[in-house]
UniProtKB/TrEMBL annotation:
<dbReference type="GO" id="GO:0005988">
    <property type="term" value="P:lactose metabolic process"/>
</dbReference>
<dbReference type="InterPro" id="IPR017583">
    <property type="entry name" value="Tagatose/fructose_Pkinase"/>
</dbReference>
<keyword id="KW-0067">ATP-binding</keyword>
<dbReference type="GO" id="GO:0005829">
    <property type="term" value="C:cytosol"/>
</dbReference>
<dbReference type="InterPro" id="IPR029056">
    <property type="entry name" value="Ribokinase-like"/>
</dbReference>
<dbReference type="Pfam" id="PF00294">
    <property type="entry name" value="PfkB"/>
</dbReference>
<protein>
    <recommendedName>
        <fullName>Tagatose-6-phosphate kinase</fullName>
        <ecNumber>2.7.1.144</ecNumber>
    </recommendedName>
</protein>
<keyword id="KW-0423">Lactose metabolism</keyword>
<comment type="similarity">
    <text>Belongs to the carbohydrate kinase pfkB family.</text>
</comment>
<dbReference type="InterPro" id="IPR011611">
    <property type="entry name" value="PfkB_dom"/>
</dbReference>
<feature type="domain" description="Carbohydrate kinase PfkB">
    <location>
        <begin position="10"/>
        <end position="287"/>
    </location>
</feature>
<dbReference type="GO" id="GO:0008443">
    <property type="term" value="F:phosphofructokinase activity"/>
</dbReference>
<dbReference type="GO" id="GO:0009024">
    <property type="term" value="F:tagatose-6-phosphate kinase activity"/>
</dbReference>
<comment type="pathway">
    <text>Carbohydrate metabolism; D-tagatose 6-phosphate degradation; D-glyceraldehyde 3-phosphate and glycerone phosphate from D-tagatose 6-phosphate: step 1/2.</text>
</comment>
<keyword id="KW-0418">Kinase</keyword>
<dbReference type="GO" id="GO:0005524">
    <property type="term" value="F:ATP binding"/>
</dbReference>
<comment type="similarity">
    <text>Belongs to the carbohydrate kinase PfkB family. LacC subfamily.</text>
</comment>
Length: 306
């Protein structure tokens, strides 16, 4: 089974204004839509659209859980969240001016207390089997320390699951120390992982000495990865970008889909590129269109880095 873990999911509320945001004025909304927030939930949505069944785990808030579950239902995501009492799933409001500029207003998310942390550990201890795939993505909520995060990974390691971890900063460091199987920092996350002025491919080499499968995503430039001791650059074709929100999660979704089909490292990365380059052509954070896959596949280039 594939499980995704989102420790701090969100409901994203996007509001398009008739004009531009102004103080002490009634700023009228022209159009609105609700989207799924929280990185590993995006991976679940991508996998569902590729017909790969999976279960979304993590923490949701009790107060607005129904609204959150309705958003998960749009993508047919099966879930088993721990519902934190007297708390809500965080909301992120995105206000978009008529002229295009945007404002983001985000909540921190619930404070997770020990009994709920233990519930998640218990579910994982009981359910996760050898060869299951676990995707952990997105920053944890307040009160979920790097010590808690370490414990989470240790439990998964004990069960011999394949652990894919798309997290940043101190959580990425913990992932590498505990020995996860896959990480996908973007350029900025890899730059800040190691001090020093070496170029990105030197930092990438350091990363690959710590984790079996590492990819560094490079936005529209594609990605860097290692296969059989050699570093490769993979580049998608130019596409018309509507939104790059969730691009990294779509990459992880494509990669994990191919991994679960026992594909080679080259095929996994290519699938990540195909799915994410489709995603950026849509407004929604996890919208993709398989009709676009063939064009991207045929026009993606792979080169060995020397
Ligand atoms: P996020 O955190 O917003 O989900 P990220 O920073 O983790 O994204 P990126 O490196 O921006 O991830 O992008 C991930 C993948 O998405 C890239 O490897 C690429 O395949 C695809 N992608 C991103 N931007 C573009 C683009 N402009 N054109 C084509 N593909 C893109
Ligand atoms: Mg990312």
């Amino acid at each position: 089974m594939i499980y995704t873990i989102t420790l701090n999911p969100a409901i994203d509320k996007i509001k398009y204004l008739e004009g531009n945001l102004e103080q002490e004025k009634n700023n009228r909304v022209k159009e609105k839509f609700i989207d799924l927030g929280g990185k590993a939930t995006h991976v679940s949505a991508i996998l569902q659209q590729l017909n790969k069944s999976n279960i979304a785990l993590g923490f949701s808030g009790e107060l607005n859980k129904q609204e959150f579950y309705e958003v998960l239902k749009i993508y047919n995501i099966r879930h088993d969240y721990i519902e934190v009492k007297n708390e809500s799933v965080r909301e992120s409001i995105v206000v978009i001016n008529n002229s295009g500029g945007s404002y983001m207003i985000t909540e921190k998310g619930p404070d997770i207390l020990e009994p709920d942390k233990n519930k998640l550990i218990k579910i994982l201890k009981e359910q996760v089997k050898e060869n299951d795939i676990i995707v952990i993505a997105g920053s944890p909520p307040p009160g979920y320390s790097s010590k808690d995060f370490r414990e989470l990974i240790k439990v998964l390691r004990k069960n011999n699951a394949y652990i894919a971890c798309d997290v940043a900063g101190k959580y990425l460091k913990v992932s590498l120390e505990e020995g996860v199987d896959f990480v996908k920092p973007n350029e900025h996350e890899l730059e800040t992982l190691y001090d020093g002025n070496e170029d990105l491919s030197e930092k990438f080499k350091k990363l690959t000495s710590k984790v079996k499968n590492a990819v560094c995503s490079l936005g529209g430039e594609g990605a860097m990865y290692m296969a059989n001791g050699k570093i490769f650059r993979i580049t998608p074709p130019k596409v018309k970008v509507k939104s790059d929100t969730g691009a990294g999660d779509a990459f992880v979704g494509g990669y994990i889909y191919a991994l679960s089909n026992n594909s080679s490292i080259h095929e996994r990365v290519k699938q990540g590129i195909i799915v994410s380059a489709s995603k950026v052509q849509h407004h929604g954070s996890c919208q993709i269109d398989p009709a676009q896959f063939d064009f991207i596949n045929k026009n993606t280039k792979i080169l060995e880095v020397r």
